[in-house]
Amino acid sequence: MNFTQLYISLIAVLSLTSCISSNSINLKDTSTPEESEISTLEKYKMIEFASIVHIDSQQRIATIRSDKPLLKGYYLTNSRINGIESSVLKLYDTSYESVFIADILEGLPKISDSISLVSDERVAELDLNYTEATID
Question: Is the pTM of the predicted complex or chain greater than 0.70?
Answer without folding.
Answer: no
